[in-house]
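Reopening this ticket.

The earlier resolution said the output was attached, but the attachment link was broken on my side. Pasting everything inline this time so it's all in one place.
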Amino acid sequence: MSETAAADSARPRGQRPNWFIALPVDASPWFRDRVTTPPAGVRRFHADDLHLTVAFLGACGDEAARRAFARVSEWSLEPLEASVGDLVPMGTPQRYSALALLLEQGREPVEREIGRVRDGWLAAADARPDTRAPKAHVTIARPRRRGLADERRAGLEWAEAIDLHGLPVSLGRPALYTWSPERKERLFEIVERS
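Inline output:
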């Protein structure tokens, strides 16, 4: 990883870590083999950081996050085998915030379940409501927050060259995540599992 990318991935001084509840995603063995090294300015996630977010709680703090996670028994889906489809930019195309795989097989039940539980979990953490329709996706890479336009274009070209349609992923039970204390290699850590 370049010095710039390493510095960009570190937690900004004084910023509280984000919390979220997500389904751990196992994309082995293909993730390490098929998702090539991205161009400069784009960071590929570590395979163990792959997840499908159910409820993004934000910088709510440990106690509030655990209040939300206390409701995890409301999640009715068992772990399931799914598959991935398109790799797309999330957010506006020119200033996308992530490159994510949309769930293909398994998308409808997962999105339906997210829609059923998300509002209650966010309210339990006093987190900001999410008014967007659920979108079952797995982020695999992010551009630098202050990345240049040519780096973002190169990231899109990299994503367009990767075809992962139909490849299998295993979705686990919801887990409570926050930032990893050492963000140079891993971005997230699981604090509690259901």
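Reporter confirms the inline version is readable. The longest strand covers residues 80-90. The chain has one domain: 17-193.
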